[in-house]
Amino acid sequence: MSATPIATGRSTSGIPTGRLAVWWVIASEIVIFGGLLISYIMHRLAHGNWAEQAAHTSTWVGAFNTLVLLSSSLSAVLGHKAADAGDGKKAAKMLYITAFGALTFVCVKAAEWTFEISHGYTITSSTFWSFYYTAAGLHALHVIAGAIIMLIVAQAAKRNQHLNRVELIGLYWHFVDLVWIFLFPLLYIAK
Amino acid sequence: MIESYVPAVSTYASSIDNLFTLIFGLVGFWLILSEVVFFGLIWKFRAKDGVKTRYITGEEKHQKRWITWPHLLVLVCDVFIIVGAVRVWYDVKQNLPPAQETVRVIGQQWAWTFEHPGLDGKLGTADDIAKVNELHVKVDTLYHYKLEALDVLHSFSVPVFRLKQDAIPGRTITGWFEATQTGEYGIQCAEICGIGHGLMGARIFIESPEAHAAWLAKESPLTLTAMDTPAVED
Amino acid sequence: MAEAAVPALHDEQHHEQSFGQKYLWSTDHKMIAMQYLFTGMLMALVGGFMAYAFRMQLAFPGMDVPFYGIVSASEYNALVTNHGTIMIFWVAMPVLLAAFGNFLIPLMIGCDDMVFPKVNRLSYQIFLLSAVVILGSLFVEGGGFAGAWTAYPPLSAKAEYSQTPLGSSLWLVAVALEFVAFLLGGINFITTTMNSRAPGMKFYDIPMVVWMIVIASVLFLVSVGPLIAGAMMLFMDQNVGTAFYDPDRGGDPILWQHLFWFFGHPEVYVVMLPAVGITADVICVFARKKLFAYKTVLYTAFGTGVLSFTVWAHHQFIAGIDPRMAHIFTVTTLLISIPIAEMIFVYIATLYGGSIRLTTPMLWALAFIAEFLIGGVTGIFLGASGADIYLHDTYFVLAHFHYMFYPIAIIGTFAGIAHWFPKMFGRMMNETLGKIHFWLTVIPFNVIFIPLFILGLAGQHRRIYDYTNFPELAIQPLQDLRVLATVALLVMLGAQLIFLYNFFSSMFKGKKAGKNPWNATTLEWTTESPPPHGNWAELPTVYRGPYEYGNPDREDDYWPQNEPV
């Protein structure tokens, strides 16, 4: 029962099954985040006074986190290259670096939120802050989940097993990065 | 057709009823035609011994025609219905003729409050008459209603007017109606609003100007007399 | 690419599986299909029981309903809310999409399982959890959620308004879990169909039911995202004190409506397409005819799917949206009737020149078309904005969507079960009982809902537990219609006992079915009934389309897909 079916190995579309599935997962996530962000944008357009609240997010912290994520995407790409070349050890190393980037991101965010909450900007302070914590929180959950999967893939990659999964988690990671590329201007720059 | 179940008592009620009848005629035609052809084909091509089925792909032009033409005709019918719908909708919901009278309609869990202008003829002044679950209006008079909700969504529905409008907390929505017949009729809440949603029935009293004036005088606070109030404008 | 056409796992597992492995945590798509089917059937009993209770209250207000008790005003609202929610998310979707999808897709495209069997199993487990949560929500303090399946805030967002603090949140959690389950399942279906087809099976060789299930899965995947976001926001309003939908604190209740219906409208096509697909397959088999204009059917399905994203606000004409928006949505809504009408015309055309056998599955498939037509045309009244001013929130709406959902979820399901039961269980269902069940279901269905159209025209509004409070609605002729509808419901519910008896007794004592009792052309009929683990000893290759009936180059009136030229 745990043997892989023949179905999984077929590729009538020409695209490997794992990659095809990850694209569909990403598609479903795009509409989830898309719905949330469009709701946020519509709300902001309707309520001009949000700029006052948005002024209190730290653009520098956001920018630093953006840099961290972009760099981690770079290491993910390097991991993919290594996996393609059959170098499981190097791929694993790159994935560990990416996961470390994720950890940095989350720690910075935790510090950021602690600071903001202690200064009275909580999730119920205003609708801006409700969206801020919800959108960034949902994103952070995806960062954490991605990092965990990354570590699992890295463990196998170290032993040159399932190297194709390095590309797959990399794809997912680029998506997580992309969501942040949208969040950053919406939450930190538009003031 | 609707009018055989519910009287049409506003200036736009019959246009809504006529739109319904137009749609009924057009879709009724297509429904009956489709069902007749459908059952006819089942009967005609029921399995018979020795009769083989025909191999029809439906990809040839002369075969596709049987689908393309009906569906173009459906499109034409749709256009008629769209035009009818747009006109009725514009008339009732988009266009706002000038008001002769205004009332405020307030929905809450679980009753309607109707605020009528008092003897001074103006809404929003001290002599306004607020009634719970009773709306009094003059016949042949163009009213604006200002619709509000205090807690959750409600919906102001007057079947004899063919009128319906959701009430949203935090907003005042303006609409209009003009009654064409006197009488007492029902008002409903048409948006589920909690346990008491089924208790939010109210009554509308459409009165002649004289009867309405009499009601107004009866309901007005006793401290106000004819000398205190400014002359009522017609 | 050289591949072994022999499933490796076929023999080893067959004799070694424990009860748990075979039935409880199987990764075999056929067993997962059964799990979804039986769960869906069980939930249908729950949803049907709720309809029984609230319709008894409507026919005989204040009565002590047998097996339920007195239906209070708050319980009435909870019953109609959960009836609707359960029927859509825990009956229609699991049966039409997950059960038939899981069972049929690998078999009809000629492979041995879904591409991700463990994810498939996980999807059922999450689904089962969601079912437990929704059922549990009915028994918590305060009772089950009672704000209608549409869950509009502020009523759904604040406990002080809904008076069901726990029920509201559990309802939301259950629905969210169900969404996750179907996202996982859908990705499996889409990927498997795209990648695992038998050699030789090109796009236009795929049976229509498989296409429809895949398109429905894509539709679901693309439309549910915004509602997942919206549901998160509603959950937070309920439990964390945010004000996404609270107008007193800068929120907007209408935002929920847009997010809900942006999903809600495509959702009806998510359930419709599989039923339409089942109908196509059944009609071809029992009319012994090639599907008329296969490509047209496919393109209308795509067209309907795309257009379904442009019509959502026809549910909100009266909601306080900008009146100018209504014109746009009237146009799009009426236009979407075109591809659907085209689809129905094509099915009717398929009957032309056929040799129609009125077996039980065929009766159901034909009934689907006849009844769906009625539902479809009544939608036009509602899509026309001007008419909707009167008809919104009346029983006319309710009768319309039951004339859509019932053919889809009940008639379509029975067509599918009657047709594929022999393949699923290796035995034939009893035809006589099947036909009796058919007539005692379909005729009462009409007697339930035609009175409701009339009640809607008479101004009867929705979600009201007792019309005696409304003088114009409490008159005897209208009350008689309510009683008539309820009596018909009782007959219809009783008739389902015939089905249940037929279903279970045939499973054990029905006549043995053999591989292809219907002389059908599609791949599932080329293997054993029921198919073994791995489906075939040797996976098939495809040489032609799925509906080669009556081909003049053949003596037999059918030409199986896998037969070499």
Give an overview of the whole structure.
The complex is a heterotrimer of chains A (191), B (234) and C (565). Chain A is mainly α. The model of chain A has no long low-confidence stretch (mean pLDDT 94). Chain A has one domain: Four Helix Bundle (Hemerythrin (Met), subunit A), CATH 1.20.120. In chain A, 41% of the residues are buried. Chain A is built from 7 helices and no strands. In chain A, helix 4 packs antiparallel against helix 7. The longest helix of chain A has 32 residues. Chain A starts with 5 loop residues before the first helix and ends with a helix. Chain B folds into 2 domains: 93 residues; 119 residues, Cupredoxins -  blue copper proteins (Immunoglobulin-like, Sandwich). In chain B, the strands form 2 sheets. A 5-stranded mixed sheet of chain B has the order 3-2-1-5-8, with no helix packed on it. Chain B has a 5-stranded mixed sheet with strand order 4-10-9-6-7. Chain B is elongated. By secondary structure, chain C is mostly helical. Chain C has a single domain, classed as Cytochrome c oxidase-like, subunit I domain (Cytochrome C Oxidase, Chain A). Helices cover 64% and strands 1% of the residues of chain C. Chain C has a two-stranded antiparallel ribbon with strand order 1-2. In chain C, a hairpin with a 3-residue loop joins strand 1 and strand 2. About 1% of the residues of chain C have low confidence. At the B-C interface, helix 1, helix 2, strand 7 and strand 9 of B face helix 3, helix 8, helix 9, helix 10 and helix 11 of C.
